[in-house]
Write a sequence for this structure.
């Protein structure tokens, strides 16, 4: 068992934060699908919950995903047995191919890796000249974390929670630090947007029992306010 296998228990539907994570991942996957046609060649980094991999695998006809944990790969195959996505068990730093892709996706993986700039720089060479890279990261300055800070219950908005550590996160991003790392990797940001404007804690939102229209509206609102949203998504080019 490698270190990545140890994060398996965090990717469970019975965790409190699965409510947020599924909402965010469903929305983010749809935003990607809206931008790129199904015949795009796609390389995706990281399985995580498997939510986006299942969506992308059913949309893109040429889709490959990389993951360093065989345990997480096994979990995906058990939960989505009809999905025939091409999955490569490899550490991101070790992957090699002669193929060039229309789209490379790094959805909520840069907060996990030791050197995010190196990973972005390395994967640029697998893009076609006209290719795009979609990068998504969690936002330290999201609205509910700012509120927690102003209320005196969170000393530092960049502080990792217990759940963050269980997931293997090693950092939070802000819009500014995210842009800085993308620029260090010599990528050009074509568009940047927010993912899900979350006004209160997960327990508070769940207790309000919002219907899907309200939750969808919070995702739509977040697009224009990346500095306040739970996640930040950038569309980049070389």
């Amino acid at each position: 068992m490698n270190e990545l296998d140890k994060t398996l228990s965090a990717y469970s539907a019975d965790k409190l934060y699965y409510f947020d994570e599924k909402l965010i991942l469903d929305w983010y996957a749809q935003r990607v699908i809206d931008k790129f046609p199904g015949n795009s060649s796609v390389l995706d980094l990281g399985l995580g919950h498997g939510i986006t991999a299942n969506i992308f695998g059913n949309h893109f006809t040429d889709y490959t995903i990389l993951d360093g944990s065989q345990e997480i790969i096994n979990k995906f195959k058990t939960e989505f047995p009809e999905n025939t996505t091409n999955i490569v068990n490899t550490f991101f730093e070790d992957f090699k191919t002669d193929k060039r892709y229309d789209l490379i996706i790094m959805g909520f993986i840069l907060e996990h890796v030791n050197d995010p700039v190196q990973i972005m720089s390395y994967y640029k060479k697998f893009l076609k000249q006209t290719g795009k890279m979609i990068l998504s990261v969690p936002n330290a300055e999201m609205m509910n974390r700012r509120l927690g800070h102003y209320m005196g219950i969170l000393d530092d908005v960049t502080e990792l929670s217990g759940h963050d550590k269980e997931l293997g996160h090693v950092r939070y991003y802000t819009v500014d630090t995210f842009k800085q790392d993308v620029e260090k990797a010599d990528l050009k940001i074509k568009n940047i947007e927010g993912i899900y404007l979350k006004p209160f804690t997960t327990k508070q939102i769940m207790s309000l029992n919002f219907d899907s229209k309200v939750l969808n509206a919070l995702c739509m609102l977040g697009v224009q306010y990346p500095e306040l949203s739970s996640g930040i998504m950038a569309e980049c080019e070389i």
Remarks:
- Residues 18-35 form the longest helix (18 residues).
